[in-house]
Amino acid sequence: MSYLKIYIQYIYMSKKTSNSKEINNQPVIGILTIPLSNWLGDNITLNSKKVKSYLPAAYVRWIENSGARVVPIQYTATAPIIKSYLSQINGLVICGNISPVNYATMDKNTEIEVEVLRWMKAEFTIFEWAKKQNNNGIYFPVMGVGMGYEELIFMNLMTKYYDGISDSKSAMDFDNSEIPSDEMVKASNSYSASPFILTDTPGIFAKELTKEEIQLFSSKNICYTTPGWAMNPKGEKIKKIKDFLDINSLGRNQKLKTEYINAYSFKDYPFYGVAFHPEAVIYSWVEEMIPQTDVGVIFSNKISEIFVNECRKNTTQLSSNDILIYNYTLFSPARVLKILYPQNWETVQLRKHFTNAYFFGVVTNVQKEKILSVRK
Description:
CATH class: Alpha Beta
Number of helices: 13
Low-confidence stretches: 4-20, 362-376
Radius of gyration: 20 Å
Largest sheet: 7 strands, mixed
């Protein structure tokens, strides 16, 4: 089958998104913002106000591309405010490409920045809230991309630790024997791309992809992976991990001769994780290795479509348009660099890493935000 025919199928084929008769045709999906201080420095200001977090526009556009609207969930907000936002949306994405905590190289005395702890606390609030909603019969999907893919697993694997996180902690406070260092494997030392190969437990991907698409995606380098670590399918705790999730796809790095979990889905919850960055393939023109081919774009759109269709099964309605991403200012790459690096923003080495982004923690950056009803 030709690529064009598959693309036409992708655009025009109508698929059922649920056994339920009620489908939400105006899904709204939250995206958790990313801490700035983890890697960009802790002294960033804009309009004399402290900037705490950011959100690359690529994630927003990627979700919007499949017919959903986006609400930014600021990790700096209190738990009641976060829950007030969650009670109005139909699903959530935890994203990022630089992990705030590297379990592969840490020990119990590893210090963690306060802002990163606040981010971990916020994501765990969301994780527990989402589990509770699903346990109560309210379908609420969550997808982890990049570091979100790691965190969904660790939040379920180390619930006691995440539940005890507070802003005052400065180090990991569990025994060295509890640190899941063996659960991580080097996925790549550089920016790379690899095929999407399904396992014998393909989960949602087998249901939503045609046989022709599965064959095509497994033969092309379409999964864009940034340098870093991924989950080890042969780690010491893999049996425990397999108790709560299915490994849908395995990735392989030929140079490093490593194999890693490329995509997964939880057994009891509509929670999904991908080690690669589908949003970058369509919207980030910053690396030569990004597979921005016709097949790469079709695949990345397909991942977005699959998740957004999952969120359509949640029929919660947005109470106020004031919390949508449209109320925030989108900054160009040049302006982003001028904000972050006012002295050397024109440096080529820096310019290649940045695309359009939203910044948060700035009073004048949002027209208004309302704290509305909280679902308990």
